[in-house]
Amino acid sequence: MAICRLRSLFPLSKCKSLALQSFPIRRFSSSLLENVGFIGLGNMGSRMANNLIKAGYRVTVQDINSDVISKFSQMGVPTVKTPYEVAEASDVVITMLPSSAHVIDVYTGPNGLLQAGKVLRPWLLIDSSTIDPQSSRNLSATISNCLLKEKKGDWKTPVKLDAPVSGSVIAAESGTLTFMVGGSEEAFLAAKSLFLSMGKSAIYCGGEGSGSAAKICNNLALAVSMLGISEALALGQSLGVSASTLTQIFNCSSAHCWSSASYNPVPGVMEGVPSSRDYHGGFASKLMAKDLSLAVESAKQAGCKYPLTSQAQEIYSELCMDGHEIEDFSCAFRHYYSGLDEPRGQSKSK
């Protein structure tokens, strides 16, 4: 299960203010979505759960970090101790966890979601973790063999969707994530309002495991892009061109990309991104290394070439071994390429 750090959770003062505000309660087209369980309250999950609460859903939360649970409890949010208790209180359960092993444990381990055997209360289980497609398919197959305690609308058996997200912690907080969803298209359409309470878009990718596969491909492209931008900016510095100048060029030319325009890796170039906070509060290098390992394994199974994937995996694994595993993945600019901070007084990208 997610091991959360208090400093990465939204501030307690903010939690309290959210709890005291009168948010408009949304009207649901179906009562099947009202009671939502959320498991995994890390950097992303805590903010996703908070957006569900703001949207008017009845949310029950669970995490192994008692301090984080205490903060939600202080907001008046129901908390329980085990995934099984979440299942018993919910029509829909969402999980947001670090790895395939954590997801499998939450579903099938002691006191897991499936503790009751082949009879479940939730009609829909959504896993927003980034895991390998085969594990996602296996869990979907297991869920499809279960029965519902009570018929929910037209649903006689429970269904699972894999729905990993794209977007930073900032996007999770602002509710602008993108969901990549695999599984039953009918279930996707039924749950789309739930996704749009946490994100700006939800894209149907195909059958079971397709969402997980899409996320692996997305993060592969992101990792290679970040390394390419970092390498080019570090080279530019060595050749006498400032990172600010190169960033302006990239952002209005053929090199334009998210890693340069929205998540620049050079400290001092852009405000509000991890590089401006000594690479804290972003997407950890260890998580990128994990996702690249999933991409390597998927490429092997598919019989595809993966030279860039392999090189990117090696770089992020090296960063982790050098002690930078919890720093944002954009720290490759400083710790792998030995890039320099932008001197004070240079123009900054907004």
From TrEMBL:
Location of the 6-phosphogluconate dehydrogenase NADP-binding domain: 35-206
Protein EC: 1.1.1.31
Intracellular or extracellular location(s): Mitochondrion
The reaction(s) this protein catalyses: 3-hydroxy-2-methylpropanoate + NAD(+) = 2-methyl-3-oxopropanoate + NADH + H(+)
InterPro entries, per the entry: 3-OH-isobutyrate_DH-rel_CS, 6-PGluconate_DH-like_C_sf, 6PGD_dom2, 6PGDH_NADP-bd, HIBADH, HIBADH-like_NADP-bd, NAD(P)-bd_dom_sf
Top enzyme class: oxidoreductase
Domain 3-hydroxyisobutyrate dehydrogenase-like NAD-binding residues, every copy: 209-335
GO biological process: L-valine catabolic process
Top-rank lineage group of the source organism: Eukaryota
Pfam families given in the database record: NAD_binding_11, NAD_binding_2
Keyword NAD: yes
GO cellular component, one term: mitochondrion
Biochemical pathway: Amino-acid degradation; L-valine degradation
Key words of the record: Branched-chain amino acid catabolism, Mitochondrion, NAD, Oxidoreductase, Transit peptide
Keyword Signal: no
GO MF annotation terms: 3-hydroxyisobutyrate dehydrogenase activity; NAD binding; NADP binding
Matching NCBIfam families: HIBADH
Record-stated family: Belongs to the HIBADH-related family. 3-hydroxyisobutyrate dehydrogenase subfamily.
Protein name: 3-hydroxyisobutyrate dehydrogenase
